[in-house]
Amino acid sequence: MVLDQRIKSFVALANFLKQFSANAAKENENALNDLFYDNLEQLIKTVHIYNPWFTEENVRNALGAIAQTLNEEELVEWASKYIHQLSANKAPKQVAVIMAGNIPMVGFHDMLSVLLSGNIFIGKLSSDDKFLMPYLSKILIATEPEFAGLIEFTEGQLKDMDAVIATGSNNSARYFEYYFGKYPHIIRKNRNSVAVLTGTETTEQLRLLGNDVFQYFGLGCRNVSKLYVPKGYVFDMFYQSIFDFNNVVNNNKYANNYDYNRTVYLMANHPSLLDNNFLLLKEDTGFSSPIGVLFFEYYDDVKTLNTELEKAKEQIQCIVSGSSDINNSIPFGKAQCPALTDYADGVDTMKFLVEL
Fold first, then answer.
1. What is the pLDDT of residues 179-191, one digit of tens each?
2. Could you give the residue ranges of the DSSP H alpha helices within the chain?
3. Which residues fall within 8 angstroms of residue 278, CB to CB, at 6 or more apart?
């Protein structure tokens, strides 16, 4: 396949998937509907049986984000940065991708990168997300049958690969390094995202921040898990602005985590603990807050904070803020809307793949 074929196939997939994003309607003229629409709709509504974190809302959000990402103009612009390597007539490499299962279809960008780079995708699925990705690949193959020989999913031992992309925790990363260190590899570890408040935010900005915190129940590396606030900051307006997200506590898994963490902190008589019955705010210098908890830390001045964030960049996926004084920040509400070039852990996946 030439690059243009691959891009057009993913664009066709996007045109189909956008029907399933929140508040979207079925487009009767889509050629893929007869084959896949009803089955995907059913999968969206039932996958929570196997993973209670994968609510219908969260799966639709993930599908909508994928559809938005697969914009033809942006795909062409992205690929053009590597056009010299993509134009070379190289034999495809077999790339094993070990996927996480924290949010729906979190490994999609890796699959996209492997296939657009002209390589063969071997997916090792997480047991928490083993239905959605194979079904998307089935739809993709229907748009371009030549993909059939380039996509494989396995639950068994990985073998005969030329390179590895593995996503997991800091603990699993050690095992990945041990088992796959001899191959060209990208091994990702824990990362978290943070938000910087100045005290001048509007109610709407804080509501958008609530989306960065609560979407996917806060399980993604791009979810905000910590706030930096100026000395003397009062959280009343923040809590008022995020009140509409209180329905997260209706999810049993979220509620159990929230109740457990609240009990632990109260028994420890932890100072500076705030609670609104669905989110705990805890003063903490760490980045990785438990489910149902948002860490916060006071800062003195923006210049010093920028220096601290730069030092901690290996632990931070993205920074959310409404202030232009915060280096490398993105607007409130955009944490879960990564561009094609917003690579996990800041490692250029496409560059890695085209240079194999």
1. 999 999 999 999 9
2. 3-17, 33-46, 56-69, 72-80, 83-87, 108-116, 132-143, 170-180, 203-214, 236-241, 252-267, 302-311, 349-354
3. 245, 246, 248, 249, 258, 292
Residue environment code for 256-266, b if the CB has 16+ CB neighbours within 10 A, otherwise e? ebbeebbeebe
Task: Mark whether 49 and 126 lie in a shared domain.
Answer: yes
Does 183 share its domain with 223? no
Domain containing residue 142: CATH number: 3.40.605.10
- Domain-embedded: residue 164: yes
Matching residue, tokens 């409130």: 332
pLDDT, tens digit, for every residue of 63-117? 999 999 999 999 999 999 999 888 877 899 999 999 999 999 999 999 999 999 9
Name the pTM for this structure.
0.94
Domain count, the chain: 2
